C-alpha cells in the first residue's frame, strides 16, 4: 500500500526539462511550468530544480516558491540591471548583460533555461519520513462517520485506508506549515463541506476532494475533519518553523485519546 515508498529516491529524467514553459509574472517574478497534473515524477523535477537553484545562491533571487506543477521565482530587477556581467552564467549571457541586451526578465529566463539543461540526471536524494500520530474520530474527528458513509465504508476501513499510505509533501502553503499531500486512496475522495467552518483547531487532519492534509494553525477551512494530531506542525519560535518540507514522506499513526493527552502534555 505504501506506493510512494518506491519513489523516495529518483533522478530527473533525460531531456524532460526542455518541455517546460517560462512566463513572466509582473515585473519581478517568473513562473516555470512543467504542465500536466499532480504526479510524483513532476514533483521530483521541481524538487531537483529548487535544490539546484538554492545551491546557486544568486544575489538577484529573492524567493523560490514551489507548487504542484510550477515554481515561481521572485527576483530583484535592480540588482540584475547593476550586475553588468559580474556574475558569470555563460560567456554569451554575460556579454548580453554587459551590453544591456537583456531585460531583467530575459536575463532570468535565459538563466532558468541554462539551469534546466544543466540539472539533467540530478539526484533528488532520499526523502525524510515523518511520523504523524493521529487520534481518529470522536471530538477530534467530527466528520469521520460522514466520510465513511459517503465512501460506503466502515469507520475502521476509513482509518485503515488513511493510515496505510505514504503521503508525499508536494508543497507547503495556504497557511504557515500546511502540507499539500499526494497519495490519498481514491476510495477516500469526498467533496469539501458545503459550509466551511469558521475556525479549525490546530493539528486537525482533513480530507477535501482528492487531498488530505493537516491544519497547523487555527484557520477557517472546508475539509472534512477525521482526526487530530498532537504534533505541532508550525513552530514560529524555531529556526525552521514548518515541521514538514517539500519532499518529505508523511505516515499517519493511530493513537488513543489517552495517548493524545499524554503527548499534548509533553508538547506543552
Automatic annotation (TrEMBL):
Keywords: ATP-binding, Hydrolase, Nucleotide-binding. This is Inhibitor of KinA. Residues 20-244 form the Carboxyltransferase domain. It comes from the Bacteria. GO terms for molecular function: ATP binding; hydrolase activity. Gene3D superfamilies: 3.30.1360.40, Cyclophilin-like (2.40.100.10). The keyword Ubl conjugation does not apply. The lineage of its organism: Bacteria, Bacillati, Bacillota, Bacilli, Bacillales. The keyword ATP-binding applies. It holds the Pfam family CT_C_D. PANTHER family: 5-OXOPROLINASE SUBUNIT B.
Amino acid at each position: 500500500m505504501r506506493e510512494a515508498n518506491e519513489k523516495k529516491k529518483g533522478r530527473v529524467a533525460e531531456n524532460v526539462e526542455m518541455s517546460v514553459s517560462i512566463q513572466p509574472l509582473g515585473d519581478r517574478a517568473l513562473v516555470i511550468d512543467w504542465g500536466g497534473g499532480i504526479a510524483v515524477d513532476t514533483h521530483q523535477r521541481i524538487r531537483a530544480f529548487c535544490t539546484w537553484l538554492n545551491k546557486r545562491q544568486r544575489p538577484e533571487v529573492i524567493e523560490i516558491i514551489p507548487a504542484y506543477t510550477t515554481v515561481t521565482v521572485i527576483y530583484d530587477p535592480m540588482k540584475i540591471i547593476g550586475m553588468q556581467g559580474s556574475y558569470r552564467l555563460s560567456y554569451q549571457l554575460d556579454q548580453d548583460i554587459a551590453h544591456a541586451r537583456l531585460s531583467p526578465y530575459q536575463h532570468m529566463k535565459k538563466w532558468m533555461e541554462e539551469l534546466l539543461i544543466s540539472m539533467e540526471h540530478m539526484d533528488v536524494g532520499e526523502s525524510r519520513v515523518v511520523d504523524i500520530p493521529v487520534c481518529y474520530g470522536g471530538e477530534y474527528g467530527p466528520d469521520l462517520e460522514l466520510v465513511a458513509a459517503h465512501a460506503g465504508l466502515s469507520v475502521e476501513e476509513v482509518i485503515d485506508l488513511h493510515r496505510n499510505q505514504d503521503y508525499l509533501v508536494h508543497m507547503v502553503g495556504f497557511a504557515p506549515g500546511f502540507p499539500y499531500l499526494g497519495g490519498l486512496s481514491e476510495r477516500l475522495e469526498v467533496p469539501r463541506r458545503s459550509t466551511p467552518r469558521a475556525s479549525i483547531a490546530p493539528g486537525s487532519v482533513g480530507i477535501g476532494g482528492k487531498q488530505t492534509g493537516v491544519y497547523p494553525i487555527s484557520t477557517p477551512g472546508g475539509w472534512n475533519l477525521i482526526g487530530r494530531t498532537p504534533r505541532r506542525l508550525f513552530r514560529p519560535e524555531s529556526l525552521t518553523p514548518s515541521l514538514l518540507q517539500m519532499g518529505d514522506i508523511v505516515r499517519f499513526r493511530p493513537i488513543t485519546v489517552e495517548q493524545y493527552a499524554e503527548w499534548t502534555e509533553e508538547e506543552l
